[in-house]
Specification:
With 260 residues, this protein is an alpha/beta fold. The protein contains twelve helices and ten strands.
């Protein structure tokens, strides 16, 4: 089983990493996305897919990622410590925690990802999941696992933006990912705003600048190549450049349109 987290290594080296969503949740698609050279596959268990507690489904996705030489970036439905442990034990190395508003809300979930945390014992716990190669934990695994796990947080509402400095100071927080769509809802008072609305752009810019100041890698979705390049130039290190569903529609849809 491949255990080194290439995504974490790249971010620590200051590199930009590129990913795509797999809305089909197909192991075959995950492997293909690795074959084309992407760095990570966005697996969204907050809004779709199998149950995040289904270790069997997650194990199949992690096997496909290993075969394709790509990392899974798994967004959980909530920052629940027990869920963090469950997903990591299934072999996932990178998790993204949504709906975070305060540092106090984030810290227990991050701590659950590590055996050692902030100068003390962490809250990972010892088990026999796939990440332990199904044979139980040994000292070398426990010692090495903390160096491969990567935990990120979504910044997707005004309260989180207001508490950015405290959130970004949480020990072992590996990255943040800005969510303009949810930010626009948070700022809207009930009527959705455009991603280009002045208030939304101000919140996104504040998030970017706070992450750069705190040396916390930040990511965002950019389906347009020019927008992606602009994001890279601005300092974003994690860039999601599309997904399997959109790619199918764009490529096969345009081909079919030419033939009809």
């Amino acid at each position: 089983m491949r255990t080194e987290n290439g995504l974490r290594r790249a971010l620590e080296a200051g590199e930009t990493v590129f990913g795509a969503a797999a809305a089909t949740y197909s192991p075959t698609v995950v492997e293909i996305l690795g074959d084309v050279g992407l760095d990570y596959v966005w697996i969204d268990l907050e809004h779709g897919g199998p149950s995040p507690y289904d270790s069997t489904a997650l194990a199949e996705l992690t096997r496909a990622a290993e075969a394709g030489g790509i990392e899974l970036l798994v967004r959980l439905p909530k920052p629940e410590p027990a869920l963090v442990r469950k997903v990591l034990d299934a072999g996932v190395r990178t998790v993204l925690l949504p709906r975070i508003e305060t540092a106090e809300q984030l810290r227990p979930a991050v701590e659950a990802a590590y055996f050692a945390y902030d100068g003390d014992v962490g809250d990972r716990g010892v088990g026999v999941g796939r990440s332990g190669k199904w044979a139980g934990y040994v000292d070398s695994f426990i010692g090495g696992e903390d160096g491969e796990v990567l935990v990120g947080t979504m910044i997707e509402n005004q309260t989180a933006v207001d508490n950015l400095e405290e959130i970004l100071s949480i020990p072992r927080l590996g990255f943040a990912f800005v969510g303009p769509a949810d930010l626009s809802m948070s700022l809207s008072g009930g009527e959705p705003l455009s991603d280009t609305d002045e208030a939304v752009e101000a919140a996104v810019d504040r998030t970017l600048n706070a992450c750069l100041d705190a040396a916390v890698p930040i990511g965002r979705i950019c389906n347009d190549p020019m927008a992606a390049q602009n994001a890279i130039d601005a300092g974003y290190q994690l860039v999601r450049i599309g997904g399997d569903g959109g790619a199918i529609r764009e490529v096969l849809g345009s081909r079919l349109a030419e033939l009809r």
